[in-house]
Batch of 2 targets.
Target 1
Amino acid sequence: MKIGSRVHLLAGVLTLGIAIAGCGGAKVGEGTGSAAPQASSGAPAAAGTVKIAINPWVGYEASAAVLAHVLEKEGGVKVEKKELTEQVSWEGFETGEVDVIVENWGHPEEVKKFIDEKKVALSAGSTGNKGVIGWYVPKWMADRYPDITDYKNLNKYADLFKTSESGDKGQLLFGDPSYVSNEEAIIKNLKLDLKVVTGGSEAALIEGATQAQQQKKPLLFYFWNPHWLFSRVELARVSLPAYTEGCDADAKKVACDYAELDLDKIVSKKFADTGGKAYQIVKNFQWTNEDQNSVANDVQNNGLSAEDAAKKWVDANPAKWQAWIPQ
Amino acid sequence: MAAERSSASDGAVIEVAGLWKIFGPRSERVLACSDKDLDPAALREKTGCTAAVRNVSFQVRPGEVFVVMGLSGSGKSTLVRCLTRLIEPTAGEIRIGGEDVGSASPARLRELRRHQVSMVFQHFGLLPHRRVIDNIAYGLEIQGMARADRYRRAREILTLVGLDGHADSYPDQLSGGMRQRVGLARALAVDPQVMLFDEPFSALDPLIRRDMQAEVMRLHREVGKTMVFITHDLSEALKLGERIAIMRDGSIVQLGTAEELVGAPVDDYVADFVRDVPRSHVLSLRWICRDPESDEHLDGPVLPADMIIRDAIPASTASARPIRVVQGDELVGVVDRVDILTAMTSDAGAPAVHAEKASA
Amino acid sequence: MSAPAVPVTAPQGTLRLPRWAVLAGIAVLFTVGYLLYRGTGTLPHDDEAAPFLFINDARETIDAGRNENPLFLYLINYLRLFTAGLYDLLEVGLTALGWPGLIGVMGALGWLAGGWRIALLAAAGFVSFGVLGLWEASVLTLALIVAAVLLALVVGIPLGIWTGGSARVRRLITPVLDVMQIMPTFAYLAPMVLFFQIGPASATVATLIYALPVTIRITALAIEQVSPTAIEASASLGATRRQTLRKVQLPMARETIALAINQTIMMALSMVVIAALISAPGLGSDIVRGLSRANVGFMLPAGVAIVIMAIVLDRMTMAAARRRVSDRVSYVAAGMLALAGLALAAVLPAEFPEEWRISFAGPVNDAVTWAKFSWYDVTTAIKNISSEALLNPLQGLLTSAPWWLVAAAVLAVAWWSSGVRPALTALGCLVAIALLGLWEHGMETLTTVLVAVALTLLIGLLLGIAAARSLRFSAVQRPLLDAAQTMPAFVYLLPALALFGATRFTAIFASVIYAVPPVARLVEEGIRGVPPTVVEAAVSTGSTSGQLLWKVQLPMARRAILLAANQGIVMTLAMVVVGGLVGAGGLGYDVVSGFVQRTDFGMGFTAGVATVLLGIMLDRITQGADRRPSP
């Protein structure tokens, strides 16, 4: 290895780069290099590559897997899955790192910034799934303490929820740090004796809930529907003050339950313009909460990979997915 | 010293006058005031500076082997590095081959180092990643000499220093003595006027050191370079040096021939240094001859005054008469067996400080 | 700080209190202060602290100006495009070789680097990526690593040479490198997204920044280590500085610079996983996915692939560094290997054959599940006991004590251990944390770090001593430590998570696994480094082996042990922040959250800074002990 000559060579390369940089301004979103959605990796023969963000929960993964399967099978494109958290995925619309977010949970701030202001993304319509976030306790707790499902009584039971991590308050177990969350504001504004403890992942929530129900241990946790867990473990939702239009407008003043969301797909402007058939498939993609739960259940509990589970669903439900294919 | 000053200064290869090197912060300011005359400990205490070379002046004649001797920390290594400004002197004048080194531009200085002065180092300073031949050719390489030419030259030198057959070895495959031969060869390869030796053999075993000293003397005879030789070993100094400068705390305390140093040390420091030197091996008859006594016969053998005492033993044993010591045609004095015997027995003892004799 | 001299009647005059007495005094004063002022002067956490909001605003401004600000237009966006271009080039190039081609080329490089053994290792290593079913991901990771390492070398080696040659540059650059190295990797990500957005370009830059301090440090060290006589000899022959650099310093620093390259690669490999969070392609993605699904079986192959890649690249670079020249046989063999690979690439299918793949996700997950259930009682007990007995009291103490009391205690302890200046630095860091609005979280993190460091040192010391005293133990332990050190930090989180759930203890457990290997190694080397004559002298006076250890080896290995403590702190701090992902709370969670939630950006960024401050504070408290005379 001749370090000297290598240093020279590399210095030359760097100088070249800087020289290019001297010629004018570079703007983001003009898509060169790997910023272009179809430039990167793999099969150059394919019509293109669609980059789907994978947000960290299994329901999302199920939707993405089925959509990817259909896209590759019928849309003639290669799908690249990117393991990204929700807000980071939105950043990808700007650079071309992400073409599709399959299951968007509201995110009004991102909608405003990336769809309305920067105009690099747009909604591709509903997934057909209805999503709602809420606070849950295992069923046995609701049976033993019937009034626990009203938030007003939570302080009465706060001691039950104490853990080594929550100090002298009750624990509210939260999931991945990147999830949509009003927990801190709700606790503060409703004056609840609770402390948010972050489990770090969906898996931590599932495991906590399963154990709590099986071993009759107290647990209060953040969760959401659609989710396959409801068909396996009995859970009871704690009702917070009912959602009213605009009660969550100011993130600091939220004191109400989460809204039920019509989950939608977000795609990059570029993909919408140039995606052709693939974009049409994404736009037409729609299914039910039950569909998603069955695929997610296969992935999580039946040892199938996301790809295999998707294939299984696609094979079993031809009518549903054929409706997504543009004529 | 008086004799030194009278010699023709335009004949000298190296002339050093009023050279100072002070290490530490604001050394110029120290030099400008009287602090510079403080003793080392007081200077360091007061200014944080160390005066490594203090007001040193000397001249080296063409073809001479000039030895600078002193204990570690006496400033001798700094002095030799100041000559080609490997260490930048604080003040003073240096001329090599008549050229003012102190005011030379960096390019000019490089030329000087490339063609006129080369140096041999105590720890060899070889380049471990290069073969012996490439080490020797290094100086030629940086001059820009073509590969074939420099290899041809390097091979000649390789033979000269007795390293035939080792051209393709790497330095770490050689013994210490052989490595220093490479160092020597590297310095010789550029065919300099002057060679500087910075304690070149002090890292070697005594036997090998002796070989190398002989080697240097042989080379000196064969190539006739002017040499400045730094050492802390008195016997090495006496063996190699035509003239020897003894340094202490940055100053030259005495400069003279081996004979002058041993016969007439200027102070206790020098006297202490030369205490163990066998006087009869260094001093000439001149140092022990005396005026003939009235009853002595002046018909004994005649010997020259600069003959070493030891060499006079055969003549003194061959004749019962005192030896007549002559300088040219002039009788300087006489020496008898007892005088020679006394000189030889006093080898083990300390010489007195003969300051008065040196000045005589 | 010396104890006040107490006059006594003994003829020798004064008696000095032992050093520990001062520490005990500080503890007593702290306790008294705590009992008197508990609950006052606390600084509870506020998500809306002024510094956070300020940084959030700055972020919005920067984000909005991405296409107008000249800094972006003429520098950052071009850097992004250039980096992306380099990555694409490498990715296309490596992919175009095809899997047999790449394996052949790696084998050829291995042969050139170190003969047939390294060639075999390289080829087998790359085959294993295919066998693990991770061929494509591995190639993408390799492209990312190569891009980041190339850039790190282009920037780092000249900087390192400059640093190594100039004391002034070194003084300027050292604090910057310190901060870069203490800065938790996670804290890089959010600003990286802001400036470079997500994708391979920003992942490359993040990896580059993470690896750069090591490149610069070791290169500088390499240049400093070159024998001054050789440089002087070169100068004495009239070489210009450039000639000396090219012909003497660089060649003589070659092996150490190769080590710099080697370490740069290792650092880059450990960053690729975290970079996956900003859409770095490759193996990291699988690990992140495994983590979010709590699926050990999913992430383990990717972790193994990273370790294999690390081993292959490590052995190749080290062999290349030692090698003097390659003979003709090597060139022919290497050429034939590469050609064979490329020829096969034309014949064999483009994808690594399915039937050669092995999957062990199922058995691994079964094993994890088994361990989780059968060790449940033990792990829960460990977790609860350590939480109740260590973590909670300490955290309660630190968060409920007045901030000035904690600050005073830190000042006193740092003064005691390191002297005035480090103590003032430590105090400054602590006050800055308070001013940043992160006091409470800082104290939580400090608690976690203290407990983790204590455990790390305890375990590391025991392992290190055992290894130093038994060659056999050392031989068994060494490869395990090697593997543990190359494993990406993330991989440790999962078993910890599986065993202990999402708690602070999980982060502690993971950071202990992460930090023990270097500590054990440093301790072992320190003890082995005691000169044999000293040991011989001690044995000849009749010391038992216990006395030898306590009175000779450990005291003489003190420097190494302190260095180990210092290293342990930095590594633990890094891991505790990653532990924010699995419930560690404190600053780590703030950093993680700042990355994934836009509204927390300011808090996350500030928490990254606070982590650095905490690191510097702990460093100042421990470093000074090094300079004190040995007991």
Target 2
Amino acid sequence: MSLAGLARLIWRTGRIAEPAPGVPGRPDHDTGAEAPVLPRALRGSVQVRHVDAGSCNGCEIELAAAFGPVYDAERYGARLVASPRHADVVLVTGAVTRNMAEPLRLTVAATPQPRVVLAVGDCARDCGAFRGAYGVVGAVGDVVPVDLAVPGCPPAPADIVAALRQVTGR
Amino acid sequence: MSVAPLVVALVQVAVAVVFAPLVIGVTRQTRARLEGRVGPGVLQPARDLRKLLAKTPLRAAGTSPLTVVAPVVLLASSLLLAALVPLVAALPLALVPGDLFVVVSVLLVGTVAIALLGLDAGSAFGGMGSSRHMTIAALVEPTVLVAVYALSIPAGSSALPLIVAARRDHPASIATPAGVLAVVALAIVVLAETGRLPIDNPATHLELTMIHEAMVLETSARDLAWVDLASWLRLSVLLGLVGNLLLPWGVAGTAAVGPVLLGALALAGKLAVLAVLLATAEVGMAKLRLFRVPELLAGSFVLAFLAVTASYLVA
């Protein structure tokens, strides 16, 4: 595409991000679960490192959508980074497989404090359809301490964004 | 020796530290808007910095004290650069000359510090990033020297403050072939030096394509905050230098409060325009293949060399 064509496309498209919903409350208030205590130091800015512990890639597609232009998680101060050393949130998808249990532990250990472990999807919460499978060690909570979880198979991008907004508080 | 240039240099450093996160914020925000996103706001890099400073650094097992020292050295080199380059005022420091060799050496101190930081953790990507960074630095530094040399011929001095002052007092020297060629060469080199597109993609997640990001993969918390601030300062200071060479108006010639304030305002305007232009250009651009980067940098060296030739022909 020529540069002029690109400029016309940008002009014609304008803003495609959906309007932001209000600042989310604690989603646990209707389940009666205790609201998670999230570190105040992470208010306003959260760097996210994604770990695929054995996912079917359904959650990855929704995650890509959450950080894409329509849901735009970046407007709330959340950004994907390339290294756990830069991260504040370790976002884990999928049931933890045998090969990924140790890398997951190491990744969480390599993330500087204060940190938050976010389990995204039913598999990450309780192994989902893969419960009892021979290659699966367990849910994310069986391997590393989980601070926040997003249910759904796969979870909607809006739910992932809402969980990240709980951490950033924006 | 008068104290005034020293005070102005300190003011310049303070102004650069305030503007550096904002410049990055403006480029990211412009990019987000052009991509149809809302964007995190221009203050987001400042928030990131505040958050990083509140975290506890985690250093890989077996790293040397270099991991602690290198980010501080890099930050110190960037702060010194902000003091030496004429941003707010074009007053030469008596203590350290703002001469082109000094500026290039200060840039190199930072380059070597971050390259050693990349090697120190012993990870494969860090070493790869360092080797690429040094390759690019080796191609960039001669161009900076030759481009500034071309600019120094009409000014009669190789000190950057005097070059900017000469261009402000004789605007006719801005539009000469030598001046234009040298500034274009310098602009390409600034993009390479600060790791922007098309040489390096600052937003990449692919380790194999990284240059700057690969070196800092193992850096965390406070160390990362210093490295980030230092590289943002580098970008802002070098963009400010290009802005002041292109439009030298507003740069203070005396150390009085009024001209310095005006200089800071003019700098804010120039940086804002350049940051928006940079982000807009980057949206329409892909990263250059690594093996093509030397061709681009060789091209910019040719431009700088032509600028020197042209300035001798004219003079």
